Amino acid sequence: MSRRGTPAAAGWFVGDGVGFRLLGTRCSSCTTVFFPREDAHCRNPYCTGGSLEEVPLSRKGHIWSYTDSRYRPPSPYVSNPELPWEPYALIAVELAAERLVVLGQAAPGVTVADLTVGMEVEVVPGVLHEDAETTWTTWHWRPTGVRA
Amino acid sequence: MTRDVAVLGAGMHPWGKWGRSFVEYGTAAAREALADAGLDWRDIGSIVGADTVRGGYPGYVAGATFAKALGWQGARVASVYAACASGAQAIAAARAQILAGLADVALVVGADAAPKGFFRPAGGERPDDPDWLRFRLLGATNPTYFGLYARRRMAVHGDTPEDFALVKVKNAAMGALNPYARYRKRVTAEEVAASAVVADPLRLLDICATSDGGAALVLSSMDFARRHGVARPVRIRAVSTVTPRFPNTVLDLPDIATDSAATAEVAGETFRASIARAAYEEAGVGPEDLSLAEVYDLSTALELQWYEDLGLCGEGEGAKLLREGATAPGGRTPVNASGGLASFGEAVPAQAIAQVCELTWQLRGAAGDRQIADARVGISANQGLFGHGSSVVAVR
Questions:
Q1: CB contact under 8 A, B261 and A100
Q2: What pTM value is reported for the model?
Q3: B267: chain A residues, CB-CB within 8 Å
Q4: Residue A62 needs a FRET pair 20 to 30 A away by CA distance; which of A139, B53, B234, B265 works?
Q5: Strands B292-295 and B377-384
């Protein structure tokens, strides 16, 4: 309740509710978009390099593929070994405008049985884990129109 | 000038969970390869190790570790890290030294003692490491990536879990005949289907285990081979070690996202296909020339992908090729006659070397019960984290 919300990856996303967005960077010279954000140099070998500017990514995309994790992942993934393992789905999502694929966890309650390749999903704010002081926030993919 | 190097010796330590140090496995494999070559360790001018970070000093050591274990004798030494492609790149380093005239005969060694269960990144808070990030943010293990590829094949090409299971059935039948393999039991499609789901749609028997193991090769110049009395050695004709090309549009280990394809032209072939093509071009052979192939079947579904990337069939036709029996013993291009990683498991620095050991034995006609008749040209293919890919062409 009094825990502070802190992004699990600094500068990768911003906003709340329908204003939530993944953040990438865009090269001012060749306009290539990078996610996770590339802040050092443009990685397009055909580009002589420009400044990299922060840019929000499309909020919606289509499922490229999906899977799940039926066994507890090892550290540095944080999970409570005292509690039974609950599998979660992972979704790789193709963003049309940026023409890139971004992997993320599915929103809680969404299982592989709910998903098909090509289905539309949207990015939503999520919680990765909580400790005594902090709620570590992340991004989740959720089929559009589904409410948590 | 010939660009061939001779394979004078091949050796392995049996794979499994033995609970010993990687140094023991590598040294045993090295001694076996030396004995196979009919050479003394003191005859070796260069030793190249494929690195491990586990079981030993956490500083990417290999070449000197094996040299010390075998007895310091002043050889040139190098160590190579390229994740799963480490072994092939160690072969590439030794081959380059031989072709450059820096060494007449070289020993290549890879060995590891793997952890139980999932591979994981090194410890500490390291948010600048993509491998650390994918575990920390997503809990995305290697099998989850294999699951993504498998599901994608099902959606795009119509592959089924039953197709995937047939890969395991084929490879387990060959592994049962290989004394170095960890798993030496035939497996049925029903057993695959009854095993636990690890990363949907893949099950435990679709995914290769982590293992201990070691493999080694003795390589030499063609002149040295002749002087040593080996008139017709198995020859390494190509070692491809290419990187991907931007934009890399297939989500790959350990990345959380692909490159954007919005602004740069996308290459007409995938990274995996480019690994094989580079090897074919360097060797002057094509898929139609192959007698056999050893590919990284980290998952059953991934083996089908390699069929297409090696040009054994068209895109999306991997499962059909498998069902026709073309990649089984007796088929047009048997794949993973060794039993593959399905039968060996992963001992990361050793496995690309182990592939070439198998090619060597097959091309010599010395593969025993799993011999592919009249084998003349073989290819290995593998891929490692962070954009490493390698492929070796060996000929008789």
A1: yes
A2: 0.96
A3: none
A4: B265
A5: parallel
